[in-house]
Amino acid sequence: MAQGYSIVIGLVVIVALSAAAWFLSPKGENQVLWRSSLILAIVSCYLMWLITFLAQLHPLIAPRRSDLREEFLGHSN
Predict the structure, then answer these.
(1) What span, in angstroms and rounded, lies between the C-alpha atoms of 63 and 39?
(2) Helices marked H in 25-75
(3) Domain locations along the chain
(4) What is the DSSP letter of 4?
(5) pTM (two decimals)
(6) What is the pLDDT of residues 8-65, one digit of tens each?
(7) Are 77 and 65 in contact (CB under 8 A)?
(8) CA distance to 8, 42, 51, 58, 76, per residue, from 1 (Å)
């Protein structure tokens, strides 16, 4: 079963990658552009993963089987 620790571990990895992008970006007149682009891309990927992970960890709607007959469901819809 998935745990919430993955979120914290992922955040630590993202912070490390962002720090690496900050310090290892090529020097020159486009350094700010490199830093901004890399950090924005890294954070965007993390947010997409986080939203997908949380949607599966705590779904808003519980899945329901539709191939059962009404008398086996135990409740009426």
Answers:
(1) 36
(2) 31-57, 70-73
(3) 5-57
(4) T
(5) 0.71
(6) 999 999 999 999 999 999 999 999 999 999 999 999 999 999 999 888 887 878 777 7
(7) no
(8) 16, 26, 18, 12, 30
